[in-house]
Design brief:
This protein is mostly helical and 177 residues long. The protein is 88% helix and 0% strand. The protein has 4 helices and no strands. The longest helix is centred in the last third of the chain and has 104 residues.
């Protein structure tokens, strides 16, 4: 999951990468730390029966045998301390497991958000490229229309000048004759 987050991080732009990078690194560190804690606790608890025999001796069910004698205060203290360490280790392991599950859920949510943002960016880029091509086509059409307008104006001006010249010529001929 952490590797997937890093791959998605590479596809982000600078601002998003700067914002998501530290969070992803923190998630990786948390997962690594929790895995180490879980291994450490599992190693300490893995030999539970041997630990119990070492604390209690070979007594079955807590009954004293003639060889072992009565438990003195030091043995009882060690037994209670070992039991407390075992409970603390179990509690830490459960907390680590819960945090790992929460971290995984957060990472999955981030991946989904990043995927949705990527799709949105790609869609926006495609729309902008399409709009840019339409703008280019519109500019070419406007330039062509402008050239035709100028040509039409010159032709109209020429016709008007010729018409005025003919009218003046006709008037001159009528006046002179």
């Amino acid at each position: 999951l952490a590797e997937q987050l890093e791959v998605e991080l590479l596809s982000l732009n600078g601002a998003q990468r700067a914002r998501a990078g530290p969070r992803i690194r923190q998630y990786k560190e948390d997962v690594s730390r929790l895995q180490q804690d879980a291994k450490r606790v599992a190693q300490g608890m893995g030999n539970h029966e041997a630990n119990r025999r070492a604390l209690l001796g070979d007594r079955a069910g807590g009954m004293q045998s003639p060889e072992t004698g009565a438990l003195d205060g030091d043995q009882r203290t060690r037994l209670l301390s070992g039991n407390e360490r075992l409970e603390n280790g179990t509690r830490r392991l459960q907390d680590s497991h819960r945090i790992a599950i929460e971290t995984e859920a957060v990472g999955a949510g981030i991946l989904q958000d990043l995927r949705a943002q990527r799709e949105q960016i790609v869609s926006t880029r495609n729309t902008l490229m399409e709009a840019d091509s339409h703008i280019d086509r519109s500019q070419r059409t406007l330039r062509t229309m402008t050239r035709r307008l100028m040509a039409n104006k010159m032709i109209t001006t020429g016709i008007i000048v010729v018409g005025v010249a003919l009218v003046l010529l006709v008037l001159y001929i009528k006046i002179v004759r």
